[in-house]
Structures are given as C-alpha cells and as structure tokens.
C-alpha cells in the first residue's frame, strides 16, 4: 500500500531519493530508517492539504506516529495553520518544537507576517530575544514590517536599536524596512539616515526611499529625483515600483518635463507599460500636470485600459477645473463598456460640484439607483458631500443618518457641511456622536472647525478646539499647526501666534507668511522685517505674497532704499512677470516720493490687463496728479481695456480734485449703464466730495439721502467739511445732528461739529458738545507722523 502511494506521488526514482534525503536531514538517520514510508505519506498529504479540518486530522496522525516534535513537519504544519487562520493551533505546534534553530523561528515570523498576524510575529520576535537565540536579517526585517503595519513606532525603534547593536542596520533588507517604518510615521529624516547607513544598496532599498520621499510633497518630493539619479549612477535600473513612485512625484510637483523623461526611459528599457499600476501612474502624472491631451493619448494607445487609469484621468481634469471635460470622459467610459467603480462616481460628483451643476445631485442619486450600482461607503460619502455643497444640508443629514457603518471621512464631510452653513451647535452634536461611536477625529476634522471659528471670530470656541487637538495629540500634524497659527493670527493674538510659530518643528512658506501678515495687520512693521531676516537665515525663499508684504512694510516706514533692494531681488530672481508684485513696487515708489521711477516701471511692464493701469492711476492720485489720471482713463478706452470699480474710484476722485463737475456727473451716470459696474460707497463718497467742493451742497445732500449707502457717515463728514468751507451753517447743523445720531460714540465727529460751531462763533453749542464728550469719557486718538533721520524713524505726534 505504502509502496503504491510512493510510486503514485513520486514518479521519478531520482526525485524520490532526493525527497528521502531531505526528510532524513530533518528527522535524523535513525528515524528515517524506521518510518520513512510514513514520513513520505505525511509529507505528500501536507502538500495537498486544502482546509483546516483536513490539516487537523493529518496533524493528529503525525502526532500518533511519534513525529509531533519533528522540525520538518512542525514547520510545514505551522505554515498551514497560519494560512488557514488557526492561530491557537499554530502556537501549540511551535511550543512543542524544542528547537534553538533560528531558521525555524524566522520561518514562523515570516509565516505570521504573510498571513497578516503581525502581533504574533512581534511576539515571536520578543521570545526569540528572551531565549538568547539571537536575531538575524530575516527576523529583524519582518518584525520591522509588522511594527509598521500595526503602527507601533516605539517597538520599531527598539528593533532598530537591536539591529544597531549587532551591525544589521547596514543590511539592505533591514535598512529598507527601517525606511518604510519611518516613512509611515512621517519621520523622513530618520528614514534618510537609515537609508544612508545601508552598505550595499539595491533597487529595493532605493525604491523604498523614493516611495518614502514621494509621501511628502511639501518638503522632500524633489529629493526623490536626486535619489533616483544616485541609483542610476550606481548602475541600477529602476523597476516598475520605482517608476510608479517617480511618476507620482512628477505629478505632485507638476513637473511635466521630468514625467516625460521617465516615460521615455520606460519605453527605452522595454518595460511593459500595459501593467495596471504603471499605466495608471503615467496617466495620473500627465493629468495632474495639466497635459490632459497626453493622458488621453496614453489611454488610447493601451490595448487594455483599466478603471484606475480612467479615474486618474477624471481626477486630473477636476484638479485643473475641467469638470465639463471630465463629464465627457465619463460618457466615453460608458460607451466603451467600462463599468464605473466607487472612485469614478465620486469623481463625477466632484465634477458636478466643480462646474456648478450641484443641482443635479438628485439626478445622480437616481442614476445610481437605476443602474443598481452598489452604494458603498465611498459613494455614500460623495453623495452626502454633494448634497452639502448644493445647500441641501437637510437631505445630506438624512442620508448620513441612514448610513449604518461610518468612518472618519464621512463624519468630516457632514461636519464640514454644517460648519459651512454656520450650524455650530449641530456640528458639536455630530462630533459628540462621532466620539461615542469610537471613531477618532483626524486633522481634517479639526481643520474644518478651525476654519469655521476663525471666520466667525469666535475665540472661545476656537480655543476649545485647540485644547481638543492637544488632548487627542493631533498637534504634530503640519497642516493643522498652520491652521492653528492662522486662526490666532486672524484674531490678532500676536503673542500666541508667535509662541505657536516658535514651537512648530517644521515650517513652510505658508507658516512664515501667516505670521508676517499678522505683524503687518497689527502694526508691528519692524517685527515683520526681523521675521523676514530670520526666514532668509533659515534658507527659505520668499514668494510673491511675502514680497508684497515686505514692500508694504517698507512703504509704511518710508524706506526708499529697502524698496529698491526688494526691487533688485525681484529682477535677480526673474519675478517681473508677476503683476501683483510689480504693482506693489509701483505704489511703494509713489508713496516714497519717486513717481518718476513708478512711471518707468509702468512703461516697462505689460499693459494688456487692467491691474497695472489701476495701480498707476492710484499712484498719480497719491501725488494729486488728477490730469494724468484722466489721461490714462481715456487711453484705456482707446485700447479697449474695460474699467472696473477701482478705476472709477480713481477717476471720480480726479474729477473732484480738478473741479470737473459735469464730467464727473456724466461718468457716474454711465458707470452702471455702459460699463456694468454697480456704484459702491467709495463712488458715492467721491461724488459727494465733488459736489461739495463745487459748492453744490444741496445737490450733494440730496444724493446722500437717496443713496443706497449702508454707512453714510463718511459721505456726511465730507459734506460737513464742505458746509464749513462754504459757510452754509444751516445745512451744516442738519448734517451735524444727523452724524451725531448715526455715530454717537465717535469722538472725531464731536470734534468736527464742535469746530464748525466755533468757526461760526456759536460758542455755547461748541461748549455743550465738548461737555458731552467729557461726560461720556470719549477721547480722540492723536495723529502722528514719521520722519526719517539717517537710519532711524522718529515718530512725532
């Protein structure tokens, strides 16, 4: 019987001899002589084992034949128990094998890792150490991978220390696992250190580091290309995984040229581009770089297109604001009989919101039901988001309540919707439900709250959210720290913003910009300039926003030489094409008294857009050169450049200063009818000033009374000054009483009306007003001026 089984399963005599030799090496020569036929049968049966019940019976037979502590059979049974999910049985088998051979321990650790039982792998690693057997590359590598999968950074660090003690940190497998561990926890510097310690780096090690860098587009994405270059210098060729990570980096950085070079490299190397991951990576790169035509060409060239590639195409189009084109590609998908998946449907809903078709949310919902598409959590989340986007928050909440299984993303969507519509109380109730369900909030959850409360200027709730972030240890997230900083900066809490900025371990350009703008808005110009110097010491290069802020700071202080320095920096770094930066330079020179330099800059830049024209007109207005403002206005019309509200403010102000009443009235009348610009408060104030200067006080007062101005204080103040100039005390008294009614707590208005009475020798009324001011405790803020003496700014009241 046994011989027949042996002949059936071992057709070759040579193979049979080899197999018997392998068995004898595990069980020993004596065991082999006594029970070779039984061992052969058990070994063959183990190879054909397909379920845990058969394995349990076979294990019992092996045990009854006295082979229960055999290393060979124990390792095989251990592997199959791990694969079939028999955790208790696998533990029992391993415990019965009294073996100090590290190979068996490694076999068990690898088996547990491959079957997803990461905690058991780590437990074996701890036992391996405690028994003094020692560790090697295999046990350290898979234990590090288990720590990464379980999110146990401290255990991973402890294993790293173990490898350092015996010099395993230079092993390429251990080093790659360490890179993966530290990348998982956003400790990219530690990952780089582990990478550089690897003695003999291979493609796997390089790819691990490139993939880790690709996870940090804000800081280390460029480093991925440098590491890839080093790999090329070492004579190593990138594999599919390497290329997928590099395509991802190129897409993040929108580096089209580098992405095209990678594509050409893959074609030269003869790499099969029809691989799903690689094809999707190429399409995604082109789509994210804005080259949708190249992405579409890639889709057409592939003999087989994957749904993931179409999803990448749709996502890239939406990213570039081409929602309508994304919908067209969705129609093409259906025509090509490519079934959409949840990600496709989420992209389509995002496209509808992007092009303002959120009103179609019910149609989309109906489409999903009609096509009998499974509404999984991803699709349901997108639907809730789309209902929220189109203002149907009640429908969004109803759909949310019907979902039984929820996750953090779904909660973030419904919370963001309620906070967008200022339903703060309901948002807090949803947050409470989230915590009660055991779902932990993440950084996106808190960013929604911080954005809402900074806009609402609710310091109490904002501080509560900050405390909540500290309690749940979320303050290590970089984006979240920036939002906390922005919230306090927006409130004008300089000391708190400065403290948070100083405590941030990582800072980007946005962090520096937030604090610098905070200093500027709170009047701390000198501190803004000191912050810029510190930023330069840190090696951070300013962008247009920071340059504009710096120009404004130097302009406020009247530092002409510093403005020239910034202007030189702009030219050295070829930033002249940025219109906002150049406009700020024009205004700065004008305010520092160098209108001639402002004119030169204006003549040297492009004038196709409206922005530089408005800036130069404002510069002329600062110097009271009203004639030049009007000349520019008429030149704009000749060049068919449409004016906006800011243009008309400058023009009406120029008419006021030149006394061009008829022309000003004509421009004010055609402002809406011909140019489709709705008159603003500034326009009405300019007209009141124009009529007041011309002595047409009654007409000016009639304009104010019938205007749609929400706050008429500024216009009435200008008219009151005109009444004083033209000695119209009758109308001046009416306007003065009206002003005191509108703003009874403004000391400046009391002073203005009192001065008018004094100049008309109406001393009793002037004294009465001054007494009211004294009784109310109102004080007028004194004015001051700045005078530059050598390198110092001297302030005078």
From TrEMBL:
GO BP terms in the entry: RNA modification
List the keywords (alphabetical). Answer: Repeat
- Xref: SUPFAM superfamilies: TPR-like (SSF48452)
Q: Where are the PPR repeats?
A: 101-135, 407-441, 508-542, 609-643
Pfam families, alphabetically?
E_motif, PPR, PPR_2
Q: Name one GO molecular function term.
A: RNA binding
According to its UniProt entry, this protein's organism is: Platanthera zijinensis
Recorded hits in InterPro entries, A to Z, give: E_motif (IPR046848), PPR_At4g14850-like_plant (IPR046960), PPR_rpt (IPR002885), TPR-like_helical_dom_sf (IPR011990)
Residue ranges of coiled coil: none
Query: What is the protein name given in its UniProt record?
Result: Pentatricopeptide repeat-containing protein
């Amino acid at each position: 019987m046994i011989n027949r089984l042996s002949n059936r399963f071992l057709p070759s005599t040579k193979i049979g001899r080899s197999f018997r030799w392998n068995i004898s090496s595990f069980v020993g020569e004596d065991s082999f002589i006594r029970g070779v036929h039984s061992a052969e049968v058990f070994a063959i049966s183990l190879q054909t084992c397909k379920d845990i019940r058969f394995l349990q019976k076979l294990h019992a037979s092996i045990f009854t034949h006295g082979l229960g502590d055999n290393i060979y059979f124990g390792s095989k049974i251990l592997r199959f128990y791990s694969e079939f999910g028999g955790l208790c049985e696998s533990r029992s088998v391993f415990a019965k094998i009294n073996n100090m051979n590290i190979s068996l321990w490694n076999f068990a650790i690898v088996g547990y890792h491959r079957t997803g039982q990461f905690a058991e792998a780590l437990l074996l690693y701890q036992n391996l150490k405690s028994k003094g057997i020692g560790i090697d590359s295999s046990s350290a590598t898979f234990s590090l991978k288990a720590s990464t999968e379980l999110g146990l950074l401290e255990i991973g660090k402890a294993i790293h220390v173990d490898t350092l003690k015996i010099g395993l940190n230079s092993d390429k497998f251990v080093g790659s696992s360490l890179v993966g561990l530290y990348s998982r926890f956003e400790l990219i510097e530690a990952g780089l250190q582990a990478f550089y310690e690897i003695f003999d780096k291979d493609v796997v090690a390089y790819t691990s580091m490139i993939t880790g860098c690709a996870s940090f587009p804000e800081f280390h994405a460029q480093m991925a290309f440098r590491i890839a270059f080093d790999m090329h210098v070492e004579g190593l060729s990138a594999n599919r995984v390497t290329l997928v990570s590099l395509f991802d980096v190129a897409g993040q950085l929108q580096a089209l040229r580098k992405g095209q070079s990678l594509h050409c490299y893959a074609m030269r190397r003869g790499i099969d581009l029809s691989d799903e991951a690689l094809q999707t990576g190429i399409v995604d790169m082109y789509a994210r770089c804005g080259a949708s035509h190249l992405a579409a060409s890639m889709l057409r060239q592939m003999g087989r297109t994957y749904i993931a590639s179409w999803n990448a195409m749709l996502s890239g189009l939406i990213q570039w604001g081409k929602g309508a084109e994304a919908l067209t590609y969705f129609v093409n998908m259906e025509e090509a009989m490519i079934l959409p998946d949840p990600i496709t449907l989420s992209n389509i809903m995002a496209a509808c919101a992007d092009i303002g078709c959120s009103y179609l949310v019910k149609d989309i919902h109906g489409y999903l039901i009609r096509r009998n598409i499974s509404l999984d959590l991803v699709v349901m989340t997108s639907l809730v988001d789309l209902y929220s986007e189109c203002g149907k928050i009640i429908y969004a909440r109803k759909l949310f309540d019907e979902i039984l299984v929820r996750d953090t993303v779904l909660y973030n969507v419904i919370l963001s919707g309620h906070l967008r519509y200022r339903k703060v109380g309901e948002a807090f109730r949803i947050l409470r439900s989230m915590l009660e369900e055991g779902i932990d909030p993440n950084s996106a959850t808190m960013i929604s709250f911080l954005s809402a409360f900074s806009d609402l200027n609710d310091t109490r709730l904002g501080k509560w959210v900050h405390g909540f972030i500290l309690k749940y240890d979320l303050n290590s997230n970089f984006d979240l720290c920036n939002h906390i900083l922005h919230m306090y900066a927006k409130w004008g809490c300089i000391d708190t913003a400065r403290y948070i900025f100083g405590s941030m371990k990582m800072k980007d350009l946005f962090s520096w910009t937030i604090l610098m703008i905070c200093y500027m808005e709170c009047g701390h110009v000198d501190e803004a300039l000191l912050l810029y110097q510190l930023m330069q010491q840190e090696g951070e290069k300013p962008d247009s926003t920071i340059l504009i802020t710096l120009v404004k700071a130097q302009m406020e202080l009247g530092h002409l030489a510093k403005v020239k320095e910034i202007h030189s920096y702009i030219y050295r770094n070829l930033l002249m094409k940025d219109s906002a930066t150049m406009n700020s330079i024009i205004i700065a020179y004008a305010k520092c008294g160098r209108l001639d330099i402002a004119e030169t800059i204006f003549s040297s830049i492009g004038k196709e857009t409206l922005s530089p024209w408005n800036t130069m007109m404002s510069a002329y207005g600062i110097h009271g050169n009203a004639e030049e403002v009007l000349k520019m206005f008429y030149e704009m019309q000749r060049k068919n450049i449409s004016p906006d509200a800011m243009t008309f403010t400058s023009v009406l102000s120029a008419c006021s200063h030149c006394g061009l009443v008829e022309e000003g009235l004509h421009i004010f009348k055609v402002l809406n009818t011909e140019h489709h610009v709705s008159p603003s408060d500034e326009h009405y104030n300019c007209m009141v000033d124009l009529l007041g200067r011309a002595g047409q006080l009654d007409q000016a007062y009639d304009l104010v009374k019938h205007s749609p101005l929400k706050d008429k204080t500024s216009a009435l103040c200008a008219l009151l000054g005109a009444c004083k100039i033209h000695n119209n005390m009758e109308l001046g008294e009416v306007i003065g009483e009206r002003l005191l009614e509108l703003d009874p707590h403004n000391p400046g208005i009391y002073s203005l009306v009192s001065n008018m009475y004094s100049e008309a020798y109406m001393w009793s009324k002037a004294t009465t007003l001054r007494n009211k001011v004294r009784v109310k405790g109102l004080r007028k803020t004194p004015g001051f001026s700045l005078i530059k003496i050598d390198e110092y700014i001297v302030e005078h009241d």
